[in-house]
């Protein structure tokens, strides 16, 4: 048990300090939060969510190889990247090359719904309720929720071609599209 509050009981399944380590590790990976940098790294010929996962995973692996992340830090960030990729894949189901891909109206609605459910507050995708104790819900929160929210936002912007550099960005080789 982490805390007993008037309105809920918080529990944790992770060791002390893990949430802060995950956030600190992810914060050092600026490219992971930069839609234009992600788009430049997205390989052509892959579906959008897979192309993003390939780019994001490469950023983490390169940071580890360069000594900016240790093994456990890279594993912790990659777990969040995998979670975001699964969420993206559930929202972006049309096939096709990530280059020039735009979500359908239904996919955009699914992305909007996911973003709403990721928002701070409430009981969204990052909160599990295990039952009640003494009339209060017993909850657990994802230790990397803050980082995952930011990663999802950058991933969505990269896939939709919005954000810094969007008018000229081309997934894959980084050449401008006119």
Could you walk me through the main structural features you see in this protein, from its secondary elements to its overall organization?
- This protein has helices at 18-27, 35-41, 48-65, 71-91, 105-118, 145-160; strands at 3-4, 9-11, 127-133, 136-141.
- It has 178 residues and is of the alpha+beta class.
- Helix 1 (18-27) crosses helix 4 and helix 4 (71-91) packs across helix 5 (105-118).
- The termini are far apart.
Question: How is this structure best summarized?
Answer:
By secondary structure, the protein is of the alpha+beta class.
Features:
4 strands, 178 residues, single chain, 6 helices, 48% helix
Note poorly predicted spans. 163-178
- The ordered H/E elements are EEHHHHHEEH
Report the sheet with the most strands, covering strand number, pairing sense and barrel closure: 4 strands, mixed
Helical content stands at 40-55%
User: How far is the first residue's CA from the last residue's CA?
Assistant: 56 Å
Average pLDDT confidence is 80
Task: Estimate the strand proportion.
Answer: 5-15%
Number of strands: 4
Strand order of the largest sheet: 1-2-4-3
Computed Rg: 18 Å
Shape: flat
As for the number of domains, it is: 1
List the helices and strands and how they pair.
Elements: E1 3-4, E2 9-11, H1 18-27, H2 35-41, H3 48-65, H4 71-91, H5 105-118, E3 127-133, E4 136-141, H6 145-160
């Amino acid at each position: 048990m982490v805390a007993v509050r008037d309105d809920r009981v918080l529990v944790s399944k992770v060791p002390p300090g893990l949430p802060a380590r995950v956030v600190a590790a992810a914060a050092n990976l600026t490219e992971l939060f930069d839609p234009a940098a992600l788009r430049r790294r997205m390989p052509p010929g892959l579906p959008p969510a897979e192309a993003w996962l390939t780019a994001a995973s490469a950023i983490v692996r390169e940071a580890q190889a360069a000594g900016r992340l240790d093994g456990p830090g890279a594993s912790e960030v990659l777990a969040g990247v995998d979670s975001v990729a699964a969420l993206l894949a559930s929202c972006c189901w049309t096939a096709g090359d990530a280059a020039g891909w735009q979500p359908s109206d239904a996919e955009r609605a699914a992305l909007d719904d996911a973003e709403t459910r990721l928002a701070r507050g409430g009981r969204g995708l990052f909160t599990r309720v295990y039952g009640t104790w003494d009339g209060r819900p017993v909850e657990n929160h994802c230790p990397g929720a803050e980082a995952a929210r930011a990663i999802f936002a950058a991933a969505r912007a990269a896939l939709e071609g919005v954000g810094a550099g969007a008018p000229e960005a081309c997934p894959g080789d980084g050449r401008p599209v006119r």
